[in-house]
Each structure stands twice: as structure tokens, then as C-alpha cells.
Design a protein that fits this description.
single chain; 507 residues; FAD/NAD(P)-binding domain; five-stranded parallel beta sheet; 20 strands; oxidoreductase
């Protein structure tokens, strides 16, 4: 498309999940209104719009899973379900006047850096733009990962991923196979177990599961938090503080997890009386190495007579027969994949082309790395919200997002201070130094004790989790250090020689 046909904007934000909406709010609070939020779907919400499976809920307490600048005193439960979280995000959108900035049905197809004009060319399914700055908040939990299983294409029944739930298919009376035992699967199993005729769960690795102490938030509590907002802030602060105190168990003293393991095993023993089933559900790795799951109804559902646990991963599909790696066979009318997302090989990275013609995916082929989890070398004025090594194992991602929004705000201020046309490109030395620091700290963590998890990339490196407290991350992203960046300016046009005399000019 010709340059004149592209609308120019100062900032393009990709995605309207918590990261994208947070970025939009922060930009407006900084006085920046020349921006758009590019969303491939037809509404806001990100992963909380896409995941609508039975039982979908958050495993972070409600009062910690919300923006600090947009408290919600009316959460109905201590752990909120998907409908309430999505409603909260719609509320944030309206409260902060974000609707005029939203561009729905606009999937980003290509981002290409123009080194001459120092801006990004943004191509989407809903229109094309140029942007001085791009904020990618596409999120790691956006694109489902479905394993390549031999024979899956020949399965005669229905197949879908947990994040693309088929609500037109009635599971009642059906034989259903659930593949995976992650955070979604442990909610789906008890959600559908009462209505299916037979449920077969394929488990590659048993997860550690702790009780989920969920309860309704009383009317008195909601009244108090509405009338006295400081009480809600105090509640949030206590929840945050408890989780900050737990971080050392994950990052420096994994052996302390044995105490929590006893609680998890007690939870398992109370719910599952069958010693054979209990043995299959007992993890053989340190608690915390994989994501710790919260559920009070997962184990009871597995103990029901219409549920079979296959302690092996799905290896092959032969018609309507599912075959596990250990040879176990099961018949199914439907297959539900609870196999997670493309976290360490983000699809958006394949669509971003930087200064040297390389895509972000190519730059990250040996592992994701970004300065302070935000800026990748060779991709000027491109910031990632929930970037490499920013995920958390025990607390709310909203805390990380807000820290990165602080960094975004200062990034924009620095560009203003530089004046004129300018761009900031993270120095490779700064990215490498930050990454070495993170990976060095990772060596002592519970995530490096030997289990197989979605935190690890194809090379076995943990490029996903932040190995510290949220307070540490906030200090590290409070402001932009210009010494860590190269300041780019437009290339100078070649100077034309000026004729010395009118006669020379006429020649």
C-alpha cells in the first residue's frame, strides 16, 4: 500500500487484554491521545474473552487481579470467574474512555521498521498505519498449542481446544477425552464430569494441586470496600505482601517447598481413597517447578465412577480410539485439548521485522530476551508488555503489567525530551547483560529443579518467568536508562553542491 494511504499515529497498541487496556489508560494519563488499540477479535478481553470453557476462573484472588488505578469493590467471589473478569475489563474500557481508540477485527499481519522515516509500518486486516511507537500486548496466552498427534485428522468426532470452546456441541451423554492436566484442564474436568457419560483424562505429568479457598464475598464486605476504599486497598496490600514473602521459596530455597507439598498430599489423600489412583496423581518433582494449581473439586471429580485417568500422554488416534504412549486405549466422541499456548514461540514475533531485516522470531531463535522484559535489540520503539522473563509463579500478572506501563510512560517522556524525530533501540550489550543477570538468578530457582514445563523453551531455558519479587521488577522498570539504548535519528540527505556563479548554474 502506498505511504499516503496509511494513517499515521503516534502509538499502536496490539491487543486489548489487560496489557493492552492498561497501556491505553496509561497513554491517556500521560496526555497522549494519538493512539489506536488493534484487536483481532470483535471485543476487548484477551484471554478472558477467548476462554469460556465450563468452570473458567482465575487462580489469583480477585482483589489482587485488578488494576491499582481501577479498584473494583464489588467482586462477587474471592476468586472470580471468567464472566466477572471480562465484565471488569469492559468497565475499565468505558470508565477511561477507550472505545474511540479501539480498532476491532484488525489483526496485525505485519510490522516493518522503516529506518529512513524512523517509524513502523503496520499492516492489519482492518486497515494500515504508520506508528512512531508500537506496544505489543498480544500476550503469551493468546494462541492455543495443539500437539501434532498422528491420526488426529481422521477422528470422526468433535475436536477443540479449551480456549476455543465449542458451545454448539452438547457434551451430555458423550464420551469425552481431555488432554492435559494444566490450569484449564483442572477446571474443565469437574465442570463437565457430571454431564458426560465417560470422561477420560490423559495425563502426561501429575500437577501439584492445593485447595482453592474460594467463597462468596459478603454484601457487608462489598459495602465496606465501596464506602471505605482504603479497606479494599488494605486487602489488596495484604494479599500482595503474603505473596512477596513466598517468593524466596521459589527463587532461593526450593527445599522449603516440602512443607507445602505435605499440604498438597493431604489434600490428595482426603479426596482420593483409591491407592492406585492416588499413586498416579502423586507428582514426582518439587512443588513449584511446574505451575501450582488451585482446586477443591478436581480430585473429587477424578474419583467419580465415570472418570478414567490415563497416566500417559496421547500418542495416536485410530478412528474413534485414542491410544496413549503406554498403550492404553480409550473410545471418545469428543477430544478437548487443554494443552496450553504458544508461550515461548509467540506468533506475533514472526510478523515483526526490525532494522536488519530479521524478524523478531529469528532474533529469538536461540531464546527470547528483552531488556527489562520490554525492549528487544534491533527493534526500535517497540515495547512488549508481558515480554520475556516477566511471568509469575505465585502472584498477579497485573503487578508486572503496571510496572511495564511505568516503563512505557518514561519511554515516551524520553522521546519527548530528545525532541524531533527520534527512536530508541536497546543496545545488544544491555540486553545481554540483563539476560545474563536473569538467567544467573534462575539457576537457584525451583523452576530449574528438573521438571518439564511450559516455562521452558525448546532449548530447555526458562525464558518465561521472572526470578524475583514484583517489587524488584518495579524498581527495575521505574525509568528508562538512556545509556542502555542507542538514540536513532533520521539519516541525513546527501548535500547537493551549490554552483559558485550564475554561469556555472546555467551549464
Amino acid at each position: 500500500m502506498a505511504e499516503h494511504e496509511r494513517q499515521h499515529i503516534r502509538v499502536a497498541v496490539i491487543g486489548s487484554g489487560f496489557g493492552g487496556l492498561g497501556a491505553a489508560v496509561r497513554l491517556r494519563r500521560e496526555g497522549i491521545t494519538d493512539f489506536v488499540v488493534l484487536e483481532r477479535a470483535d471485543s476487548v478481553g484477551g484471554t478472558w474473552r477467548d476462554n469460556t470453557y465450563p468452570g473458567c476462573a482465575c487462580d489469583v484472588p480477585s482483589y489482587l487481579y485488578s488494576f491499582s488505578f481501577a479498584p473494583n469493590p464489588a467482586w462477587p467471589r474471592s476468586f472470580s470467574g471468567q464472566p466477572h473478569i471480562r465484565a471488569y475489563m469492559e468497565h475499565v474500557t468505558d470508565t477511561f474512555g477507550l472505545r474511540p481508540h479501539l480498532r476491532f477485527n484488525s489483526e496485525v499481519q505485519q510490522l516493518r521498521w522503516d529506518a529512513e522515516r524512523l517509524h513502523w509500518e503496520v499492516t492489519t486486516s482492518g486497515g494500515d498505519y504508520t506508528a512512531d511507537v508500537v506496544v505489543s500486548a498480544a500476550g503469551p496466552l493468546a494462541d492455543p498449542r495443539v500437539p501434532e498427534v498422528p491420526g488426529l485428522d481422521s477422528f470422526p468426532g468433535r475436536v477443540f481446544h479449551s480456549a476455543r470452546w465449542d458451545h454448539d456441541y452438547d457434551l451430555r451423554g458423550k464420551r469425552v477425552a481431555v488432554i492435559g492436566t494444566g490450569a484449564s484442564a483442572i477446571q474443565i474436568v469437574p465442570g463437565i464430569q457430571p454431564e458426560v457419560s465417560r470422561l477420560t483424562l490423559f495425563q502426561r505429568t501429575p500437577p501439584w494441586v492445593l485447595p482453592r479457598f474460594d467463597r462468596p464475598v459478603s454484601a457487608a464486605e462489598r459495602w465496606l470496600h465501596t464506602r471505605l476504599p482504603a479497606t479494599a486497598a488494605l486487602r489488596r496490600g495484604v494479599l500482595w505482601g503474603i505473596r512477596e514473602l513466598q517468593v524466596s521459596n521459589f527463587t532461593r530455597h526450593p527445599e522449603r517447598m516440602r512443607v507445602v507439598e505435605k499440604l498438597a498430599l493431604s489434600h490428595l489423600h482426603k479426596a482420593v481413597k483409591d491407592p492406585v489412583l492416588r499413586a498416579r496423581l502423586t507428582p514426582g518433582y518439587r512443588l513449584g517447578c511446574k505451575r501450582i494449581l488451585l482446586s477443591s473439586d478436581y480430585y473429587p471429580a477424578l474419583a467419580r465412577p465415570n472418570v478414567d485417568l490415563v497416566a500417559s500422554e496421547l500418542a495416536e488416534v485410530r478412528g474413534s480410539t485414542l491410544v496413549a504412549a503406554d498403550g492404553t486405549e480409550a473410545e471418545a466422541d469428543a477430544i478437548v485439548f487443554g494443552t496450553g499456548f504458544r508461550v515461548t514461540d509467540l506468533p506475533i514475533a514472526q510478523r515483526v521485522t526490525g532494522v536488519d531485516g530479521r524478524t523478531l522470531a529469528e532474533a529469538w531463535k536461540d531464546g527470547m530476551a528483552a531488556l527489562r522484559g520490554t525492549s528487544a535489540a534491533g527493534f526500535p520503539n517497540f515495547l512488549t508488555v508481558i515480554g520475556p522473563n516477566t511471568a509469575l509463579g505465585n502472584s498477579s500478572m497485573i503487578l508486572i503489567i503496571e510496572s511495564q506501563l511505568n516503563y512505557l510512560a518514561d519511554f515516551m517522556r524520553q522521546l519527548d525530551t530528545l525532541g524531533g524525530k527520534a527512536a530508541l533501540d536497546a543496545r545488544p550489550s544491555a540486553v545481554n547483560a540483563w539476560n545474563r543477570h536473569v538467567q544467573r538468578r534462575m539457576e537457584r530457582t525451583v523452576w530449574s529443579t528438573g521438571c518439564r514445563s511450559w516455562y521452558l523453551d525448546a532449548n530447555g531455558r526458562n525464558t518465561t518467568v521472572w526470578p524475583g519479587t514484583t517489587a524488584e521488577f518495579r524498581r527495575g522498570t521505574r525509568q528508562v536508562d538512556l545509556a542502555e539504548y542507542q538514540v536513532l535519528r533520521p539519516p541525513r540527505a546527501p548535500r547537493r553542491a551549490v554552483p559558485a556563479t550564475a554561469a556555472e548554474a546555467a551549464r
